[in-house]
Design a protein that fits this description.
12 strands; 8 helices; about 270 residues; alpha/beta
Amino acid sequence: MSRVVGHDDLLLVTLDTLRFDVAAELAEAGRLPNLARHLPGGRWEKRHAPGSFTYASHQAMFAGFLPTPAAPGPHPRLFAARFEGSESTADRTFVFDTPDLVSGLADAGYRTVCIGGVGFFNKRGALGSVLPGMFQESHWAPEFAVASPTSFESQVARAEEVVAELPAHQRLFLFVNVPSLHQPNWFHLPGATRAAGDSRKTHAAALEYVDRHIGRLFAAASSRRRCFTIVCSDHGTAYGDDGWSGHRLGHESVWTVPYAHFFLEPGAS
C-alpha cells in the first residue's frame, strides 16, 4: 500500500451487516457473478470484524483496522496510523500521521468522498454526522437509506456523478456504505412480506440485488485509472442463531465477515 497510495484511486465498499456464511454460500453457488469475478479465486476471505455494529466497526476501519484474517497472526495491515510499538505495521503498510485514514489520504492528495447508507451516515443529527464528517465530501439522501428497495442503485448513480465531476488528475478515495443487507431487507425476496419479516433468505436476496448493480460502481471507480478496491462487511447479524437475533452482540454470525481486496484495471465492470 505504500506504493499504491499516491498512484491508484481507492474504493472501500462496506456491505453493511453481511454475514460470512451467506456471502460464501452464494459465491460458491454462482449466485454472485459480478462480485465473484473479482474475488481472489472466486471466494471470500473469512475475517473477524473490528466491531459488532456499524459505528464501532467503521471507527476502527477508518483508523486502519480493517477486518482481521480469521487465523493466528500477526497480520500486517494495509493502513496504519504512526504508532510506537505497533506489531501490525510493516514495510509495505501505508503509514499516516493524522488521527484517521481518511484525513491521511487527504494529506496524500486524495479527494475523499463518502456515500452513506445506514443511519450513522445520514447527517440528520450529531451522531449521524461523525463518520461522514471525516470526509471532504459526503452524500446521503432518503433513497440511500435502509428502507429503500432501490438504495444501492441510487448510491451507484450518485457515485457515477461524483467521479464524472472530478478533474482527471485528481486521485480519489471513494467510500460507499451499502445498506441493502441491513434490516429491513424482506422486500428483496419476491413473495416475502413485511409481516413475515427478514430472514437468512431475504438477506441472501439482498446480496444478489447488490451484485446486480455493483458492476456499475466498479466501472465508475476504475474509469480514470487503476483502482485498489476493498469490499467487506463491517459485521454480520443473527437470524435466530442459537437464540440470538440482530447484532451488537458477540455471536459468531456477527463477528465473522467476508472480505476481499483486489485491483480494478481501467474500464473494469
